[in-house]
Design brief:
The protein has 492 residues and is of the alpha/beta class. It is built from 17 helices and 14 strands. Strands 1, 2, 3, 4, 8, 9, 10, 11 and 14 form a nine-stranded mixed β-sheet that branches. It has a three-stranded mixed β-sheet with strand order 6-12-13. It starts with a helix and ends with a helix.
Length: 492
């Protein structure tokens, strides 16, 4: 990742939201899409791995809630598709999604989605901008997913990349997901099976700063010292990999919106330490493990790497964590030999949701006991009150997390505090010189815009209900008017 990219991501906790001009106000109405002859076309999406379970993966390993349930005719009779076209989503990570649309360089980079780039037979091969024709020219993604919304400056870079005269990239919130704090205990350091581990916010901060003090006869930053700090009863069986084991911090190796969400939450607990680190970049205040030769690229990979390396802690979208090795992470400690590791316990923690004072802490689980994300979806937390004013403004710095969600939302003690909004980036005008070209409505720009608009109409409509049982929940209802206004503006 470039120094330019890194520099832009370091100010998340001090940045102001909505610095761009109000050129696509939420009250605005989109010009109607002309109905092309063939209505729709194959499109591609890529980016956020946190969205993998919701979107689906192009290799077929994950069917995807949205791409499986969308029938392609959500707006039929208006500007929608007459039948279901093919859509492929490639979970390459939020950072790569941002880079593809030029959010850090001012240049479109189709090479980042290798699946779309390899397609030389789709209509985009023959009807895209003339300068992009020729052997090896593949498809540009119609949309990208990110959990790390672009800054105002990055939106300007995307405008430059598109070759457009006005702001064209729009940030559409599409779901909420809980980010689970993962614990993979050493082999001979155990707690009672099916027991939950409760971590107060101050202690979660100490864990990831690597400032756990010595205690209980154990050295600093070891599992015995950490369990002593949080008041967790445990059994130490002297031997290889017991509670004297140092804690290893597992982190994502790629540009990750989940990393951005996790570090931003820690920044809400301890701003002074985390402000320089709250970005999607692999930058942490303590020594970490990003997977080495087998990198933690994608939330599922990091969750599995954490599970298969006893003595590790990590973080991942709850949907990825639940699928990671030998039944996956759960609220209670269970035995695991993920990746051929020695038998040990894994679980995700319950996190304090009523502030940062350990005394009197109340704890919440990422899920509500089934597979529904335990994120509040009827109110907005304080960090969401700065949501973008207009459809082309930045959502940078808007967070769905809140260490005091219980108090801030009037005593809703069950809500999980560490949730992330996830977004889709779409184009307001698909005819940008460097996008799909100045074609007729039946050309690639018109077909792509129509397909994308129909898919996004479904995602912010019925799709918000369809993901409820898949470890996600809908965007908070007070923000749903902004969703509709953004989708209405998609045009060719």
């Amino acid at each position: 990742m470039s120094r330019h990219h890194k520099a832009r991501r370091l100010s998340v906790l001090t940045a102001c939201v909505g610095a761009t001009a109000v050129l696509g106000a939420f009250a605005g109405v989109s010009p109607a899409l002309a109905t092309p002859t063939d209505n729709c076309t194959t499109i591609y999406g890529a980016g956020s791995s946190l969205q993998k379970i919701a979107q689906g993966s192009q290799d077929g390993s994950v069917a995807g809630v949205w791409l499986n349930n969308w029938n392609g005719t959500y707006n039929a009779g208006a500007s929608g598709c007459s039948s279901k076209p093919q859509v492929k989503y490639n979970p390459i990570g939020s950072g790569a999604g941002l880079d593809e649309f030029g959010n850090n360089t001012g240049t479109i980079d189709k090479t980042l989605d290798t699946v779309a780039n390899a397609d030389t037979t789709s209509p985009c091969k023959v009807s895209g901008p003339a300068a992009q024709q020729g052997p090896g020219f593949g498809c540009l993604d119609a949309y990208v997913g990110t959990d790390d919304p672009p800054t105002a400056g990055q939106l300007g870079e995307a405008q430059q990349a598109a070759g457009a005269l006005g702001p064209v990239e729009m940030t559409l919130p599409v779901a909420q997901a809980p980010v689970a704090a993962l614990l993979s205990l050493p082999q001979n350091c155990t707690i009672t099976s099916n027991t939950a581990v409760n971590i107060a916010n101050t202690y979660l901060d100490a864990l990831w700063e690597a400032t756990v003090p010595a205690g209980g006869g154990y050295s600093a930053d070891t599992w015995g010292a950490f369990f002593t700090l949080i008041g967790q009863s445990f059994t130490n069986t002297a031997g290889t990999g017991d509670c004297t084991t140092p804690i290893t911090l597992q982190v994502r190796s790629d540009g990750s919106g989940t990393s951005y969400a996790f570090k931003s939450y820690l920044g809400q607990i301890n701003r002074n330490v985390w402000a320089p680190y709250a970005s999607d970049y692999d930058l942490w205040p303590a020594t970490t493990d990003n997977g080495g030769v087998d990198p933690n690229k994608g939330g599922g990979k990091e969750a599995l790497h954490t599970a298969s390396h006893p003595g590790s802690v990590g973080y991942a979208n709850a949907a990825d964590a639940a699928a990671a090795g030998n039944g996956g992470f759960t609220p209670g400690a269970t035995a695991s030999t993920a990746g051929g590791s020695t038998s040990h316990q894994i679980l995700w923690a319950q996190i304090q949701n009523n502030g940062t004072t350990p005394g009197g802490a109340n704890f919440a689980d990422p899920l509500n006991g089934t597979t529904v994300a335990n994120c509040n979806d009827t109110q907005i937390v304080p960090a969401e009150k700065g949501a973008a004013y207009s459809a082309t403004d930045s959502w940078f710095g808007v967070l769905a997390s809140d260490p005091n969600v219980s108090g801030d939302l009037g005593g809703a003690t069950a809500d999980y505090p560490l949730c992330a909004l996830t977004y889709v980036l779409v184009w307001k005008h698909y005819q940008g010189n460097n996008l799909f070209g100045h074609t007729t409505p039946s050309g690639e720009a018109g077909l792509t815009a129509t397909t994308t608009k129909d898919l996004m109409s479904y995602i912010i409509g019925q799709g918000q209900t369809d993901i409820q049982g898949n470890d996600y929940t809908n965007v908070p209802s007070p923000l749903q008017g902004k969703q509709r206004a953004i989708v209405n503006l998609i045009a060719y």
